[in-house]
Write a structure and sequence with these properties.
By secondary structure, this protein is α+β, with helices and mostly antiparallel strands. The protein has 2 domains: about 230 residues, no CATH class; about 80 residues, Roll (SH3 type barrels). The chain has 11 helices and 6 strands. The relative contact order is 0.10.
Length: about 375
């Protein structure tokens, strides 16, 4: 049961929380509009498509906004209560700091669970869907300028290696729009030694059953010394495997442009000991570890706010900016340590959370009012 004082503090916090959310969310959406809206209009996107895009991108922005808004609103609310003398009055009535702030701790737990749902389920869906909308708009724009579908969204020299199945791919030109390519080579290895190679003039992919079809080519066979022994021509052959054109294209993108669904696809596909995608694992683990910052926020906010004597609430907001800068700086350090393999990917992702947790415990024990 929430006491009257719990409802009052929760109500004061919610006012600040939603104000900060709307301000920061509005800034992020305006920033996205300045980058993409003009391109959407120039490429002939319909109003419904644009509206769907910005409806879906809002949860993506919220994933970034919620921890920041929570931090600022917590500090602001506690500073206002301290400035008005309400905290002193409540403590004089016999309430402890933990008892006064228990509604905020409950809000932190609820927000942490919400962010878990966001990061684990909603964000992968919205990230994948908004990317598909971008692709469809680009496809439509390219289609107006060409009569051949296989010239839309063409990738040159599409290369990929599956370390688990020891399968090496190279496709000279591949269209992600039509899922067709030309001049493909698929090499099958055994302990790094070439055993079989398929060469084809044309290749297609069927996403319904993950089947690759190769046309007008030949199959080479090799001995234990990697010397060709014979070849067999074919008009058409096919096989099913876990490699997809989207995954092949995905690994060529810069890390900062990858959505959570793409990071999850990469980290689940390649073995954990495959060092080439260490930074991708750190980035994906960081997204899943980020919800725990909500609890650390309250732990740090209490000593920073309640230890001050009638200071302006803006001071607390300034401290929030400094602490958030420190958090993201520590996250960058963790990425560097993980990328250099001084830390495992999971430890590198949790590094800023653990560092701020230790700092929060020290600050709470030292400065939080008894």
């Amino acid at each position: 049961m929430l006491r009257r004082i719990d409802r009052y503090i929760l109500q004061e916090w919610l006012k600040a929380f939603f104000i900060v959310i709307w301000l920061t969310l509005g800034i992020l959406l305006l920033e996205d509009m300045s980058r993409n809206l003009k391109n959407f209009i120039e490429r002939g996107a319909s109003f419904q498509t644009v509206a769907t895009y910005y409806t879906l991108i809002t949860p993506n922005c919220l994933g970034t906004v919620l921890p920041i808004a929570f931090f600022i609103s917590i500090l602001y609310t506690l500073n206002v209560l301290q400035l008005n003398g309400e905290i002193i009055a409540l403590r004089a009535s016999g309430l402890t700091v933990l008892s006064i702030t228990r509604s905020l701790w409950g809000a932190a737990v609820a927000l942490m669970l919400l962010l878990f749902l966001f990061n684990g389920y909603l964000l992968p869906y919205t990230s994948r869907t908004t990317q598909n909308i971008h692709q469809q708009i680009d496809y439509a724009a390219q289609k107006r300028n060409t009569q051949e579908d296989n010239q839309i969204d063409v990738q040159d020299n599409l290369c990929f290696y599956n370390p688990t199945s020891e399968r090496l791919w190279r496709i000279n030109r591949f269209s992600l729009y039509t899922q067709t390519g030309t001049f493909a080579t698929v090499t099958l290895l055994t302990k790094g030694q070439e055993q079989k190679r398929l060469e084809a003039q044309r290749i297609t992919f069927n996403p319904a059953d993950h089947t690759w079809h190769l046309y007008h080519g030949r199959t080479w066979y090799f001995d234990d010394q990697a010397n060709p022994t014979r070849f067999e021509p074919f008009q058409h052959t096919h096989f099913t495997c876990e490699e997809t054109p989207q995954l092949m294209h995905c690994i060529t993108k810069p890390l900062k442009t990858l959505g959570i669904h793409e990071l999850r696809a990469i980290t689940h596909f390649f073995p954990r000991n495959y060092q080439y995608f260490t930074e991708h694992r750190i980035q994906y683990a960081s997204i899943l570890a980020s919800p725990f910052i909500c609890l650390i926020i309250v732990l740090i906010a209490i000593p920073f706010s309640l230890n001050q004597v009638r200071t302006n609430p803006v001071v607390g907001v300034s401290k929030a900016a400094g602490l958030l800068f420190l958090y993201y700086a520590l996250g960058g350090i963790g990425h560097v340590l993980g990328g250099q393999r001084f830390l495992p990917a999971i430890a590198a992702a949790w590094f800023p959370n653990i560092a701020l947790l230790v700092a929060g415990i020290v600050l709470y024990r030292k400065y939080a009012p008894r």
